[in-house]
Structure formats: structure tokens, C-alpha cells
């Protein structure tokens, strides 16, 4: 039970800012702290982090509650009522229209209130708490052959409470419908905290549990719906994807399910505390046909014919996505796999069922249908589940691919999910495209062609008042077009702030008054999520937006790194659109700190939002370099997973360097950071004092002292000092480079030099055995080895890192220009040449070095593939090699290369571990304050996987830190791929590997 209240400060402006904590908040905080089992937070950073969803809006809440139970929510509602503060329920915060934000207490159910309360595997029903994430639910029920079939693109992070709130739908809604078709019952709380339940009526059931008041309300609602029956039949659009307004239409069914009135009510009627869901049987097979079209209109005109074939999904991927996606490394390969020639757009058609032959026949029917419409050889068949998964990943990232657009003008969501009957789809899209053209903009179309619900976002600059006015004009015209084509203005995402205003034009005045009656019946004092669905906020009110009038990035005055690729540090930070991909808990590597703490603060999104608010002065004058900002970034392990996996390319690792530079400039550099950063400077001297320095790990008292004085955890061993690597051969001259592929400079990073020279020695032997010529390069001045500056970057010492970069660049460039390539072993060091060097020393020279620098495995994999080298390697007799990738290898797509090289070893059974960060991350795992999080990160997937390893299995890890973490945590010795190859080499200079049980083995 905790509550943190900020000292009350007067509001800065009419629009609330996170600093505008009031005395009322202090009272609220106190009361909540007394009452809650969970947490309530009132500090400005937390409130700022909960001010946005994936929309253009921003409203700073009064506070944030993280409930642990329904009782916590009930207490919150009561206390909020006493203080006359609204309550806004929230799940993953992935809405696109401002639904889960507001002036009041935001109640985030996703952190703690997310369990399963009942599960009937025989009957296929499940009851969950509202914070349950859809993907977790599906993982749980999969083993029993079930799945929950409403699958929004945000399945990895959207919650059942939020899905019910928005009446969400997935790509397969053609077969499975919306949430309202799959929710059986809802338990909820009235605004005063009184519990009740709604479910199916009939068979002697009123469909109501709870006090008489709930019965009376249910009866009143049914009477209201009956009274409006004619109007409902006349005004509710007859499209499957109608999610706007309240579901009064559900109450005029023969046996209404009262819960369906709460579905889609966006937290405006009641607070959901439990949802009972109907599960569906997982189909045994799925197949996909990727239909190619020469024009957008032809795709729209053919959609209905494709839908008539009975698929479960027909999804559009338009030209913009094809073009932008081809530039995103994560999607390039998939798009190349599924496209032939240069189609204008694609329709992804999926069939599902238990009879695979029948499904393959469906693909043939699809091809015939396309031919009938004049499109020959226009279907790429994707029958393999693995390929289908990649295609769905591209489809689900469509929005984000578009949002990766740099600059202030971005695709904006406000008419992004209108749905029209299929027969009008082509005309509707033409009409709206014409509206865009008239307003000097354009849009990208994608998604659920099957149900006439296409996503589109015109490109507008929401920092400009003129474009906000355009947004209003486009909304008016699009809403009129949707009405003309008898569609629904919201066909998927809900009303929120963007669309509540358009309920009256769509449903008419009479039904709008009926909606107000619904609201007043449940929430007479307008406490729950006010301003949504009824009595709406203005969708173009700039005071409610992220970029309010006067928004400007004022800090830092000058940046330490070059951010020109984004148009500046501010635009780089603003790239985060809060879609929440970083909240996923499985798959990929982003974001390891969040996977451990499940706290928005330790999430890429939370960090980006905090930075945006801080650099634009919304968290106070010095917020950017404040301790709060430091705490927000402390657990970021700079793994760079977001750089690759965040669909908009938010590069938090680089932002952390920028931040630390300014933070330490203001607060000074602590001893631990100084010691770690200067490692390359004192490594040679320290090696000479090895016996003395290594005592730290042998004498517990010294370990404790190092914790107290320097902040290095006493529970951690430190790398052992020893005689460093001595490169063989004489210093080279660029003239020695003959200019063919064999010329290589082996870059010895500080860590491998000082602590694991056998890796570099092994790499030398392997490279020589493969026929490379090694060149020994020294800096121009002094003999201190070349360095990438990584240790300086880790503490934001960009000036020193830049000096290292200059030294290294000056020494290596002549060799590169003579035709040599640079190869390195440690991913975090070598890849600095490709990444941070260009931000430290913008210009063609750093880029040149970046292009000529390769990880050991990248070099070998490329040359093996080109058939330029041959490695004589001994058969390993089926020995298993568990492969853990360093985060930076993953971020730079180098894992394929490690696997290629390892698979070149005959008889080696390579098994990649699907792991996120190992948790060590440079100095992070050594910190007394961070060791627990570090170990928890390792326990997420790496350690459990390695505990399954057999005694003779190999563990392969190219990262120094990863090897240390594995050894420290499990007592296993992990090896760099260079040593694996070296040990497997069959050369006249190296003896054959020794035998164990008649099989060759590689000694650990
Ligand atoms: C990239 C992207 C793709 C998307 N794709 C889809 C898609 O394919 N299909 C689709 O339908 N949507 C989609 N959405 C919209 C959004 O992801 C879904 O609506 C999702 O279901 C919202 O879940 P959430 O947990 O994030 O809810 P939130 O955004 O946190 O909340 C949604 C609504 O539910 C209410 N709510 C939350 N919890 C409760 C509770 N306990 N009690 C009462 N009310 C509550 C909130 O007040 C709010 O009004 C997408 C969004 C993005 C950013
Ligand atoms: S950091 Fe990236 S993945 Fe996370 S919410 Fe922001 S844009 Fe989405
Ligand atoms: S660099 Fe890694 S830890 Fe940091 S925000 Fe990105 S994904 Fe999270």
C-alpha cells in the first residue's frame, strides 16, 4: 500500500499540466493510501505517463491508481466520489481516440488486476479480471485447443477490460464477430462502488446479479430500448462493424444479454471487474493467399467476390505500406517473400479449418476467382504457418509502418475505422481520397476489407492550427460520406474524443437523447470517463492535444549527439505514438525492464512520454535533467531492442546517452560511472596489478567495500584481470593491404583484450585458417589500443567517446580505403562503429567505417555464402549448442549470421534460445541497485532455457556480459562463436578435437 503525493503547486495554465497537482490531490492521495491494497501515484512523471493513449490527445490525470482487486476499485470509486473527481478505467492504453485518458483518476488494471478467476476447459468459457492481456489468455487456453477469437492487432498488449470497453474486433471478425458477440457476462461496479453483474436473460433469469437497483436499471434500459425499437431499426447502420454509441440494439433481441450494453461503453457506465468470455476451437490449419492487384480500386471492387469464397479474413495492405515496409529491416524479407513484381496493393485472404486438403482447394478457388476478375498469376500461396506468422506481423504493423514517417506531419487517426457495406467500398474510398486531395493531403488504406472497415489516416501536422482545422473539415465530410453509404462512423476503435461528437449526426437526435438516458441511468453524476460517447468533448479542442498551442521543445539547448536523421532530438522523442508494442511480454526482445517490473515507468513508451513532456517544459523547468527523469531511464539496459522492434524506431538507448550527458553535466559523475568508463585507459596497468585487484572476489570484505564505496554489488563476481591479448605480427601499413576480400583488421575490444584474450586468439586462428590476411593496426599517436568508446557512452560522456571515435577512425580509415575490412568480436563494441559513431561524428567518414565493419560471424557468414572461403571443421557428432544472442546482435539482425556460421560446423546441433536481454548489459548487472532486476531479466527466458541444457552441451554467447551473467547465475561457461569454430578446426596446426564416449567434444 503506497501513495506518493507531490507537494501541491498551482496550475501553470488553463490546460492542466502534470505539475498542476492540487491540494485536493494531496487529500485524495492520503485517503487512497489508507484504503488501497494496490498503489496510488500522484507524482508529475507518473501522471504525465498516463496522459496519453495511441491518439493525438493528451489530458493530464489527477492521479493514477494501480488496483490489486475489485475492492481496490470500489474504494477508489468511493473516494473519488467524495472528492468529486472523475474515474477513467484503463487497460493497455492502446486506444486510438482518447478513450482511456481524462481529467480524474486513471485506474490501470493491467499491472496487478489481471488474473483468471474461472476456467471451464470442457465448456470453453473463461472469466478473467479486466487487466488480463489477450495474448496471455490465448497462451493459457491454447493447450486445451481453445482460443479467444477477437484478435485486435494489439493482441500482445491490449486487455480484455479495454477490449470490452471499446467493443474491439479483429481481422477475423468476418467469422467470429466483435467483443459483443463473444462476451457472456460482465461483473462491474456502479460509480459509487456497488457491485453488480449483467449476463444473458431468459430461462427464468433476469440476467442480473446484485442489488435491486441493478434489476431496476436493467428493466429501465430494456424499456428504453423497446420504446426506441423503430428508431434503432431505422438508424443503427446495418454493417457488422458498428461500434459507435451504446449497444441499445442488443436489448431488443429476443433474449438479450445485458452485458452487451456495457460492451463498447468505454468505461462511461460502470467499472468492469470481471469478464466471462466464450472461447472458440482453434482450427487445425490455416492457409493464406496473397492476392496482387494493379490498382487500389481493382482491389476494392474484387473484395466482395473474395469474401463470397468464405474466408475468415480478407485484409488490405496498400501501396504506402509496401513502399515504407520495404525500408524497415524487420519487414523487408517478408514483403520480398510474398510479393511478385510490383503490385499496387495486396489483399491477404485467409482460410481456416480442420481439413487441410479442403483449405488447399480453397486456395485454388481463390486463384480461379482472381483469374475470373482478370488477374492471372496474381496469388502467392502461403500455406506454411511460419510464413503466415510473418505476413500477419507485417499486416499488424501497418499502422506503425506508416507512423515511422519522420517529420511533424504524421498519419492522424480520427476517421481511421469507418465501415461501409462492401458494395460501396470502392466508391467510399474514392470519395474519401478525393476529400483528402481537396484538403491537400493523402492517406494510406489498410486492414479489414472483408467487413468494409478500412483504416485510413490522412497525413497532417497536428502542431499547426491550420491542419487541426483541416482535420475537422475532413471529419465532417467523411462522416457525411459514411452516412451516405449507410455505414458506421466507427467500425472498430470506438468513439473516444475523436468521434463522440459524430454520434448525433449518425444516430440522430432522438437516439442521442436515449444514449444520454442510458448514461444518466448508470452514472447520474457523470463521474465515469466524462466527455465520451454522450455530451462529448470537442474533437478539435487543441487544449486536449499532445501538441497544444505553444508546444515547443526547449531542452536541451544543444545536443551531444547528432539527431539530424530525425530532424532533431525533439522529433526523435516524439516518434513514440504510444501504441504500446513495447508492452509485449513474449517474443522479440523489447522491453526487458518492463517485462520484469510491468511498470509503465520502465517501458519504452513511458520513457519516451516522460522525455517528451520534460523537453517541452511540461514537467517543470529542469525536469529533463531531474532525478525523476534519471529514475525513469535507470532500468533501460540500452539493449537497442526498441531501435529494431519499435515500429516507429524509437531509439531509447541513444536517447539515454543524450540524457546522461546532460544529467551528469548538471549533477556530476558518480565514482562507479567514472571507474567503468575509464576502463580502457587503465586496463593495461590494471593487468599488471592483477593479483592485487582480483582479491576483491576472494575476500568478502573487499566485495562489501566495493559495494559501499563504488556501488558494485557484493553478490557479483568481477571480470578477472590477467595478461592481456598481444596481437601477433608487426604493425601494418595501409600499403600492405592488397585490396582483395582477404584483408582484415581484427579489432580487439577492451573486454576481450583484458579479460578473455583466448577469444581473440581463437579468432586469429580461425581467420588465418580461412585464408584471411590479418593487419595489425595501432593508433597514430601513443600505443593505447583502439577503442569504440562504449564505456564512455554508457555514462553519457560523449566528448570522451568522440575522442575515442576520432582516434579509431583516423587509424582504421586508411586501411579501409585500401580495401580492408574491420572485424570485431564483441557486439556492443564493434556495432558502435555502425551506430553511435555516426551520431558522434556525423559525416561520410564514420559512415564509411560503419559500412566496412563486421562482426566476426557476419564476415564469415557473408564469405561462406559467397563461396570465397572454406573452413575445415571437424564433425561434432550431434553435440547440442545452445545459442544466446547479444541484444545488439539482435538489434542489428546479426543472429542469422551466427546461426549460419555455427551450422557450418558439421554435426553441431544449433538451438537458438528465444531470449530477451540477459540482464547484464554492461555495468547494469554489476550495480548494487540493479542486480535484482538484472537477475530477474535473466530468469525471464535465458536461465530457464539453459537449465534444460545437458552436461555435454555447448553454450554459445558472443557478448562478454552475457557470458558473465550465465557463469555467475548458473555456473556454466559460455563461449564466443570464435572459440567454437577454433576448437572445431581441422588444420595441420591444430590437433583434432579429443574424443568423449567415442565422439569429438569441445572442452568447456
Ligand atoms: C496499432 C494499433 C492497432 C490496433 N488494432 C486494433 C484492431 O485490430 N482491432 C480493434 O478493435 N482495435 C484495435 N486497436 C485499438 C485498441 O488496441 C483496442 O481497442 C484495444 O482493445 C484496447 O485495449 P486496451 O487494453 O489498450 O484498452 P484501453 O485503451 O486502456 O481502454 C479502452 C477503453 O476501455 C475502457 N476500459 C478499460 N478497462 C476498463 C474497465 N476495467 N472497466 C471499464 N472500462 C474499461 C477504457 O476506459 C477505455 O474507454 C488498435 C490500436 C493500435 C494503437
Ligand atoms: S516506444 Fe515505440 S513501441 Fe513503444 S509505444 Fe512508443 S512507438 Fe510504440
Ligand atoms: S533500449 Fe532496451 S531497455 Fe531501453 S527502452 Fe529500449 S528496449 Fe527497453
Radius of gyration: 30 Å
Classify the helix fraction into a percent range: 40-55%
Gap between N and C termini: 48 Å
Number of helices, counting only DSSP H or I runs of 4 residues or more: 43
**Average pLDDT figure:** 92
Write out the distinct hetero groups bound to the structure.
Answer: flavin-adenine dinucleotide, iron/sulfur cluster
Mind explaining what this structure looks like?
- This protein is α/β, with parallel strands linked by helices and 1004 residues long.
- A hairpin with a 5-residue loop joins strand 9 (183-189) and strand 10 (195-198).
- Helix 10 (296-307) runs antiparallel to helix 16 (425-438), helix 12 crosses helix 14 (385-396) and helix 31 (757-769) packs across helix 43.
- It is globular, with a radius of gyration of 30 Å.
- Flavin-adenine dinucleotide binds at residues 53-54, 88-96, 99-100, 109, 130, 152-154, 158-159, 161-163, 165-166, 168-170, 266-267, 271-272, 399-400, 492-493, 529, 579.
List keywords for this structure.
six-stranded antiparallel sheet; 1004 residues; binds flavin-adenine dinucleotide; binds iron/sulfur cluster; 43 helices; globular; 13% strand; alpha/beta; disordered C terminus; seven-stranded antiparallel sheet
Short characterization:
This protein is of the alpha/beta class. Helices cover 41% and strands 13% of the residues.
Amino acid at each position: 500500500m503506497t501513495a506518493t503525493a507531490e507537494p501541491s503547486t498551482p496550475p501553470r495554465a488553463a490546460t492542466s499540466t502534470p505539475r498542476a497537482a492540487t491540494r485536493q490531490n494531496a487529500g485524495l492521495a492520503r485517503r487512497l493510501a489508507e484504503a488501497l491494497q494496490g498503489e496510488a501515484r500522484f507524482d508529475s512523471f507518473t501522471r504525465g505517463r498516463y496522459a496519453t493513449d495511441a491518439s493525438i490527445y493528451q489530458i493530464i490525470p489527477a492521479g493514477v491508481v494501480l488496483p490489486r482487486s475489485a475492492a481496490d476499485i470500489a474504494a477508489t470509486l468511493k473516494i473519488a466520489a467524495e472528492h468529486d473527481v472523475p474515474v477513467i478505467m484503463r487497460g493497455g492504453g492502446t486506444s486510438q481516440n482518447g478513450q482511456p485518458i481524462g481529467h480524474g483518476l486513471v485506474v490501470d488494471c493491467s499491472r496487478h488486476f489481471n488474473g483468471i478467476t474461472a476456467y471451464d476447459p470442457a465448456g470453453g468459457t473463461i472469466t478473467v479480471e479486466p487487466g488480463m492481456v489477450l495474448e496471455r489468455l490465448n497462451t493459457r487456453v491454447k493447450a486445451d485447443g481453445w482460443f479467444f477469437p477477437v484478435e485486435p492487432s494489439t493482441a500482445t498488449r491490449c486487455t480484455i477490460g479495454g477490449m470490452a470497453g471499446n467493443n474491439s474486433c479483429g481481422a477475423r471478425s468476418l467469422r467470429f464477430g466483435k467483443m459483443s458477440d463473444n462476451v457472456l457476462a460482465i461483473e462491474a461496479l456502479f460509480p459509487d462502488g456497488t457491485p453488480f453483474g449483467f449476463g444473458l436473460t431468459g430461462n427464468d433469469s433476469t440476467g442480473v446479479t446484485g442489488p435491486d437497483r441493478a434489476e431496476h436499471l436493467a428493466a429501465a434500459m430494456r424499456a428504453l430500448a423497446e420504446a426506441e425499437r423503430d428508431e434503432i431499426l431505422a438508424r443503427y447502420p446495418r454493417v457488422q462493424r458498428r461500434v459507435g454509441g451504446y449497444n441499445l440494439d442488443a436489448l431488443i433481441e429476443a433474449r438479450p444479454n445485458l452485458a452487451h450494453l456495457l460492451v463498447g461503453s468505454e468505461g462511461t457506465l460502470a467499472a468492469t471487474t470481471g469478464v466471462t468470455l466464450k472461447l472458440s476451437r482453434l482450427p487445425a490449419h490455416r492457409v493464406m493467399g496473397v492476392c496482387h492487384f494493379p490498382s487500389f480500386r481493382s482491389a476494392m471492387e474484387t473484395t466482395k467476390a473474395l469474401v463470397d469464397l468464405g474466408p475468415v479474413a480478407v485484409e488490405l495492405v496498400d501501396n504506402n505500406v509496401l513502399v515504407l515496409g520495404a525500408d524497415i529491416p524487420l519487414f523487408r524479407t517478408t514483403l520480398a517473400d510474398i510479393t511478385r513484381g510490383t503490385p499496387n496493393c495486396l489483399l491477404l485472404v485467409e482460410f481456416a479449418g480442420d481439413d487441410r486438403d479442403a483449405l488447399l482447394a480453397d486456395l485454388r478457388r481463390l486463384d480461379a476467382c482472381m483469374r475470373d476478375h482478370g488477374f492471372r498469376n496474381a496469388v502467392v500461396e502461403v500455406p506454411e504457418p511460419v510464413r503466415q506468422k510473418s505476413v500477419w506481423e507485417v499486416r499488424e504493423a501497418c499502422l506503425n509502418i506508416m507512423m515511422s514517417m519522420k517529420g511533424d506531419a504524421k498519419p492522424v487517426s480520427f476517421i481511421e475505422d469507418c465501415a461501409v457495406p462492401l458494395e460501396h467500398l470502392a466508391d467510399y474510398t474514392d470519395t474519401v481520397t478525393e476529400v483528402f486531395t481537396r484538403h491537400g493531403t493523402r492517406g494510406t488504406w489498410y486492414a479489414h476489407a472483408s467487413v468494409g472497415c478500412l483504416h485510413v489516416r490522412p497525413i497532417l501536422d497536428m502542431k499547426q492550427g491550420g491542419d487541426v482545422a483541416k482535420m475537422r473539415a475532413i471529419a465532417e465530410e467523411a462522416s457525411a460520406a459514411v452516412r451516405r453509404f449507410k455505414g458506421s462512423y466507427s467500425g472498430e476503435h470506438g468513439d473516444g474524443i475523436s468521434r463522440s461528437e459524430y454520434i448525433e449526426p449518425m444516430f440522430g437526435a432522438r437516439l442521442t437523447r436515449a444514449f444520454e438516458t442510458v448514461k444518466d441511468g448508470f452514472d447520474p453524476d457523470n463521474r465515469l470517463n466524462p466527455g465520451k460517447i454522450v455530451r462529448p468533448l470537442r474533437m478539435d479542442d487543441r487544449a486536449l492535444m499532445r501538441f497544444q498551442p505553444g508546444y515547443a521543445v526547449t531542452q536541451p539547448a544543444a545536443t551531444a549527439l547528432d539527431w539530424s536523421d530525425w530532424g532533431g532530438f525533439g522529433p526523435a522523442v516524439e516518434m513514440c505514438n504510444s501504441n504500446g508494442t513495447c508492452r509485449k511480454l513474449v517474443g522479440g526482445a523489447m522491453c526487458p525492464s518492463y517485462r520484469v517490473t510491468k511498470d509503465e515507468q520502465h517501458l519504452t513508451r513511458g520513457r519516451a512520454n516522460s522525455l517528451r513532456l520534460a523537453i517541452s517544459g511540461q514537467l517543470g523547468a529542469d525536469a529533463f535533467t531531474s532525478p525523476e527523469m534519471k529514475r525513469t531511464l535507470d532500468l533501460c539496459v540500452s539493449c537497442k531492442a526498441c531501435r529494431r522492434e519499435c515500429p516507429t524506431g524509437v531509439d531509447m538507448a541513444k536517447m539515454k546517452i543524450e540524457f546522461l550527458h546532460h544529467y551528469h553535466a548538471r549533477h556530476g559523475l558518480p565514482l562507479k560511472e567514472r571507474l567503468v568508463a575509464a576502463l580502457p585507459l587503465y586496463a593495461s596497468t590494471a593487468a599488471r596489478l592483477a593479483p592485487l585487484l582480483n582479491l576483491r572476489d576472494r575476500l568478502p570484505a573487499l566485495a562489501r567495500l566495493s559495494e559501499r564505496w563504488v556501488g558494485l554489488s557484493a553478490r557479483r563476481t568481477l571480470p578477472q584481470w590477467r595478461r592481456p591479448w598481444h596481437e601477433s605480427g608487426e604493425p601494418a601499413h595501409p600499403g600492405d593491404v592488397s585490396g582483395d576480400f582477404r584483408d582484415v583488421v581484427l579489432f580487439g575490444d577492451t573486454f576481450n583484450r583484458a579479460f578473455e584474450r583466448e577469444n581473440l586468439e581463437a579468432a586469429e586462428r580461425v581467420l588465418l585458417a580461412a585464408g584471411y590476411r590479418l593487419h595489425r593496426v595501432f593508433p597514430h599517436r601513443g600505443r593505447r589500443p583502439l577503442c569504440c568508446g562504449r564505456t564512455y557512452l554508457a555514462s553519457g560522456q560523449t566528448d570522451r567517446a568522440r575522442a575515442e571515435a576520432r582516434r579509431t577512425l583516423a587509424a582504421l580509415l586508411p586501411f579501409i580505403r585500401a580495401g580492408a575490412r574491420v572485424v570485431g568480436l564483441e557486439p556492443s563494441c564493434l556495432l558502435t562503429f555502425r551506430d553511435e559513431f555516426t551520431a558522434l561524428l556525423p559525416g561520410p567518414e564514420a559512415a564509411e567505417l560503419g559500412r566496412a565493419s563486421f562482426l566476426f560471424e557476419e564476415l564469415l557468414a557473408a564469405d561462406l555464402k559467397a563461396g570465397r572461403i572454406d573452413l575445415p571443421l571437424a564433425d561434432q557428432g550431434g553435440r547440442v549448442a545452445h545459442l544466446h544472442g547479444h541484444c545488439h546482435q539482435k538489434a542489428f539482425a546479426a543472429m542469422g549470421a551466427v546461426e549460419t556460421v555455427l551450422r557450418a560446423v558439421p554435426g553441431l546441433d544449433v538451438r537458438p534460445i528465444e531470449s530477451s536481454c540477459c540482464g547484464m548489459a554492461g555495468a547494469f548487472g554489476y550495480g548494487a541497485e540493479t542486480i535484482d532486476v538484472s537477475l530477474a531479466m535473466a530468469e525471464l527466458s535465458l536461465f530457464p532455457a539453459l537449465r534444460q541444457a545437458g552436461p555435454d552441451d555447448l553454450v554459445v554467447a558472443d557478448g562478454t556480459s552475457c557470458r558473465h551473467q550465465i557463469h555467475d547465475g548458473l555456473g556454466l561457461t559460455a563461449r564466443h562463436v570464435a572459440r567454437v569454430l577454433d576448437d572445431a578446426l581441422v588444420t595441420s596446426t591444430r590437433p583434432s578435437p579429443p574424443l568423449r564416449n567415442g565422439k569429438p567434444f569441445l572442452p568447456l
